Amino acid sequence: MINKAISVLTIVHQRKEALDNLLAGLRRSQVLPGEVIIVHMNEAVREYPPQGYPLRTHQIMAEGHLPLAEARNLAAAKANGDKLVFLDADCIPAPDLTGRYAAALEGPQTLWTGAVRYLQNGAARNPELFDRLEELSRPDPVRDHRSAIRYELFWSLNFGCSKATFSRIGGFDPAFCGYGGEDTDFAFSARRQGVPVQWTAALAYHQHHASYDPPLNHLADIVKNAKVFKAKWGSWPMEGWLQKFAAAGFIRWDDEDLSILRLPAEAEIVAALKL
Is the pLDDT of residue 105 over 90? Predict the structure, then answer.
């Protein structure tokens, strides 16, 4: 069964295997999307085999940063469906994810955020992956979909809204360049426009990948975007990361000011890598 009102949107940069698993997960959906739109950032557009649902690709290029906000806005602008489901390229949707979003988006204008479970390291290569997603994953340690969600905890890993709601919020602010802050800014814009944020049981499984703690590889972007956020909203985002950067001597940060003292050396970035 295809629901033509549903457009699944994803943005990607160098995540071929993960994205292939996302698409395979969608093929197993109880309700197939009317289309999937993929925006390739700072890379060539791939050729994709037939999926069982329409798939369209676009490309966006930017100098010196990943255009995350612009790519999501482009995907939304190109969507034919009225019900937008945003999935991170690392996500594998549960079989009922699209159906749950379809039902949720029948109601009043709301920003819906879906549940996430985290797959173990190596799980994505398991030949029985799609039959053992629950067994091979663990719950989100921070966001509990059984409780009320705060705007500060919204993120774009797995969320849905109507096209009208996305327009009402104003989309993602392209003033946020590269990594960090654009999700919280989007949620704060929703709050300013009176759009409620709610949980839905639309579940996605996040595929494991190497990450940095703290994300020293994105320090310059995070500092720049934190300053944009502070100027716009009067408070600092990403405080946990800023505290770690300050404690390590990379930044100077107080209630009113934030500046880079030095950028991390390559060896320091490597030391922060968590496989």
Answer: yes
Q: Is the dihedral of CA 166, 84, 117, 60 positive or negative?
A: negative
Tell me: the pLDDT tens digits for 155-190? 899 999 999 999 999 999 999 998 899 999 999 999
What is the distance between the alpha carbons of residues 16 and 187, in angstroms, rounded to a whole number? 29
Average pLDDT over residues 137-161: 83
pTM of the model as a whole: 0.94
The torsion region of residue 177 among left (phi > 0), alpha (psi -120 to 50) and beta comes to: beta
From 108, 203, 107, select the one nearest 146 (Cα to Cα): 203
Could you tell me which of 13, 5, 22 has the C-alpha nearest to residue 158? 22
Contact 196, 154 (CB under 8 A): no
Long-range pairs for 107-111 at CB < 8 Å and ≥24 separation? Answer: 109/161, 109/162, 109/164, 109/165, 109/168, 109/195, 110/161, 110/165, 110/195, 110/196, 110/197, 110/198, 111/154, 111/159, 111/161, 111/165, 111/169, 111/187, 111/190, 111/195, 111/196, 111/197, 111/198
Residue by residue, DSSP assigns 52-98 as: SS-EEEEEE--SSS--HHHHHHHHHHH--SSEEEEE-TTEEE-TTHH
245 sits in which H/E element: helix 239-247
